[in-house]
Amino acid sequence: MAEEHDSERTESASPRRLEQAREEGNVARSQELTTFALLMAGAGGLWFFGAGIFQQMCALLQRGLRLDAMVAADAAQMSLRLHEQSIEALVVIAPLLLLLMLIAFAVPQLLSGWIFTWNALRFDFQRLNPIAGVGRVVSWRGLAELVKALVKATLIAAVGALVLWHYRVPLQDISQLSLETAIVQTSRIAGVSFLIVAGALAVVAAADVPFQIWRHGNDLKMSREELRREHRESEGDPQVKAAIRNQQRAMARRRMMADVPTASVIVTNPTHYAVALRYDDKSTGAPRVVAKGADLVAARIRELGEQHRVPVLESPALARAMYHNAEIGAEIPEKLYAAVAEVLAYVFQLRRYHEHGGLAPKPLMPVAVPAGLDPQGELQ
Hints:
Blueprint: H1 15-23, H2 31-65, H3 69-73, H4 75-106, H5 109-112, H6 130-137, H7 140-166, H8 168-173, H9 179-219, H10 224-235, H11 238-259, E1 265-268, E2 273-278, E3 288-294, H12 296-307, E4 312-314, H13 316-325, H14 337-356, H15 375-379
Parallel strand pairs: 1-4
Antiparallel strand pairs: 1-2, 2-3
């Protein structure tokens, strides 16, 4: 099913998709690169350690073939001797084995870096499905692996044939040499031949590495729908986020409306804007904006102010300036101190008149605001 939709996957894998694939152990790997590195490491190890390994193994073999009748007749003695000589043989070839283990561990990191995951050990019933197995074989991936195997086998066979043809005369003359000389000559020819044949795999590895990187990227390609779905999962559904924002605004508006009755004065446009201010004469701070709004929100602020007997004053320029330059819960800008002071002075005079009587204050004259704070004033 996955290959049926490959034609729809036209987008490169996202960072999140690459990270998920890496967590699952799905990274670019080149078996040919590892094979080539192991063969070259084995050849290099034999080149440096081969003489010592050969001598020690020969000595071990000679000791193992020297058996007396009593030891040969005792099964326990024979088992103990076999165990001891096996340990000795393992110690002899340990440097070569450690080198191969190090190469087998380090070379795959060249493509994928260090990765550790248990996902590769999970039991997958799909792997036991014969239909899925046939599908994996009869596919472009299986065809590519078949072509690669044929090319590798042909290359190795051709190089091996050329090497044998090159050494045909020395190989024919080995039978005429002494045993020790023949062994040395055979070892030298085998070593050189091994290096040449292993070196031929460098061509296969050089072609396989970029191919595996390309195939890994191609396998992880995503369709546009998958990209959109991933974006929604990571960033959140736009509709849900919009609903959350609307809910947050509604809650903030309700909190703001609850503070309107505590205001000292409401300055209006008179219809388009309304800003509620609170000032505590016992505090050293400047007046604060407890609520502001435009159109329907402004109408609701005025309505609440009238219900709770909060003075509502018309000062269009000041209302617009505070609406655009002051934040809810914050003190008014310093440039508006003088204008707001005129309004608050009138409010206090009005309050004193209602509480104690006397002369009524003169009507509030239009309050001027500094240039640049009233957007509509600039247009005019």
